[in-house]
Queue: 2 jobs
Job 1
Amino acid sequence: MSIEIENVNKRFGDFVAVDNVKLSLPNGELTALLGPSGSGKTTLLRIIAGLEQPDSGRIRFHGEDTTDVHVSHRGVGFVFQHYALFKHMSVFDNVAYGLTVKPRRFRPDKAEIKRRVMRLLELVQLDWTAHRLPSQLSGGQRQRIALARALAVEPRVLLLDEPFGALDAKVRTELRRWLRRLHDEIHVTSVFVTHDQEEALEVSDRVVVMNHGNVEQEGSPEDVYDHPANPFVYKFLGNVNLFRARVRDGQARIGDIALPVAEHHPQDGEGYAYVRPHEIEIVTDPSEAGLSATVELVSIVGPTVRLELRVENGEDLVHAEVPKGRWRELGLAQGAPLRVRPLASRVFLHGETLPSAGA
Ligand SMILES: Nc1ncnc2c1ncn2[C@@H]1O[C@H](COP(=O)(O)OP(=O)(O)OP(=O)(O)O)[C@@H](O)[C@H]1O
């Protein structure tokens, strides 16, 4: 079931929560709506669900206009951050609930309900909890039951709103891998809201980055990470260093260093080069091209060494990340002089919002 979102607008009083959003979400894909708090992700999800009416615009499921179709007839399944399972019902009864409340003529018989529920519990790998109460499960297990419950009615579209938001970091990481595998098995068109860029990049087929009710960029996780369309997306998708840069004759420079950028800059001007911490090269030979700097702080995080470097005449600290092996090779200590060289970068000229040619 594909989902088409056509020029959807939603205001709350004077506040524009969703601003003329157009999106086409392909059949069977898992799409992440990613953005900071208040960017309109949940409102858009609720509009897709039919829990909220847009002020204007249309929602289509596989070409069929569902804008005015009531939530109960849209065939959507939900999982929310705090999905209250029925406390006094067993896990089995919770998952069976959506089937048992169907009108008699659509309701499967008892044996069929049992078969379906047990199959779903196996799918979420919790068949052994069927007779437990939700209070006897961990938070992560409860969310998997919530997902089984949402899938029980065979929704055309599955909508998840920060489904792992309330769980601790380790369980969260496990569950998102698990969700990815589950989705690979069932292929139901799914949309999930998150403000966690790592979660969106790891789990989804497609990422939609939102800000102030607008779509800033959409594309595959690799695409949005490697080719951010604008400074907002760049900053939102991970740590980034900004260097003052100058573009002349298609070439960008930071001070005297020519930047090894793949793209050709069509316009001359001043702006900023955006360089991720792992794209900073550190060299010790003072005769090599680079910006002079000193090591201000070293923190070792597992196999990676994170550095804060003070660049001569620089306004801000430069953050760099190098593998531990490389750091040992360099043999530098806190306060040591070195040279810093951006390995890759993307230059946005002042006032530029659209990607330059070649990006
Ligand atoms: N029913 C409502 N009445 C008034 N304002 C609302 C209502 N629902 C949402 N808003 C406002 O619309 C904006 C977008 O909210 P929304 O929940 O869609 O954002 P979000 O990106 O999902 O944020 P979060 O990650 O914090 O949930 C927020 O500023 C919010 O305060």
Job 2
Amino acid sequence: MNPASITPHIGCSPEDFAKTVLMPGDPLRAKLIAENYLTDAELVNNIRGIQGYTGYYQGKRISVMASGMGMPSIGIYSYELYNMFHVESIIRIGSAGAIHPDLQLYDIVIAQGACTDSNYFQNFKIRGSYAPIADFELLSKAVETCKSRGLRYKLGNILSSDVFYNEGGVQETLQWRKFGVLAVEMEAAALYMNAARAGKKALAICTISDLMENGAVTTAAERQNAFNAMMEVALTIAE
Ligand SMILES: O=P(O)(O)O[C@H]1O[C@H](CO)[C@@H](O)[C@H]1O
Ligand SMILES: O=c1cc[nH]c(=O)[nH]1
């Protein structure tokens, strides 16, 4: 690890990162990817336990670093990676709760767009709202990869929420079904906004970890370990 630290949150140099960073919320998921998929993986960041690694996947240099939970957290890391560490693409690989009734546990959701209940866009001081969307090239490659592997996936809008334990409960979240929203997570909208503002690329792919309507859930260990299909899609499409 290079000891040079140019931000309070990431303790290495720009050259320690690859052009593409895979970004799970959970630092242990970052470690798992580094240990199971990357060769010559090197720990490049561990400030606040936000583990970041750089290594090689099938000869391709790739980094993986956690975002932490929520838009303020991914907002910090994605801003710094894009604007201070010269990273070109960030692919979020997260867990999400199903809103769409046809989704099953472990299905993949590719986030074409990300609605949000957050005020994150207010920071940019432009009147109106912004429609956060994925990079089309990454999106197309993710769809093709899911198709060619015969994976169960859906492509469409997701909801990035500021609140995990919302006062209105499941029924409030399920209102988003009226607009065809597929699933809820907590980071993609901020990632897409930071990418757009920086002129960089972003995509969020999620694995369904719980079904909001019937209460089916995966355990924390399963969330950490069992998202292989999504991880392999992200590793494959990374440029
Ligand atoms: O599994 P990750 O990537 O952390 O994603 C989801 O899980 C967390 C909530 O449990 C939030 O960060 C949400 O977006
Ligand atoms: O943000 C999230 C992630 C997984 N499941 C949920 O219900 N919400």
